[in-house]
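Would you mind writing out a protein's amino acid sequence and the numbers that encode its backbone to help me picture the idea?
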Amino acid sequence: MALNLKTLGTRSVSASIFVILLLGSVWFGYNSFCLFFLAVSLMGLKEFYNLSDKFKLQSFNVIGIVLGLIFYALFINWQLVFPGFSISNKQSVVVLFPFIVLVAALFTSKTQAFLSALYTTVGLLYAVLPFTLLQRLVLNSEGYYKPHLLTGIIFLIW
């Protein structure tokens, strides 16, 4: 495979823009951090569902994206975004997600409904769960936002 300088230049510019957006959103504040990684997780979830559709493994895309949005929103520290607002019993809500997908599978006309429900749930675990866990990484036990922890990990990976 020959080196294509035009493709290399395009990818370098795209990567530079992404790095600027990533570091800017992490260091600007907790709200921008949450919005950026919400967008990244939902784009990753949509890409997962598109790949599963290409392999003829149909998933419940709309239900999965809505549940992914709710899943990510449950793990945001709402005290930092809106002081005085809190969500309790997060774990009990998250446990209901596979059952919601299975109920959708019961009322569908897809030929492999259970397999579709499985791919929808796996997409949530694969694409959204890691970004929800970043919430726990950047917040210490007192609830203070610590962007340098995430930035250090990103630089170690790069």
Remarks:
- The mean pLDDT is 84.
- Helices lie at 5-28, 30-54, 61-74, 78-81, 90-95, 97-106, 113-138, 147-157.
- The first helix runs from residue 5 to 28.
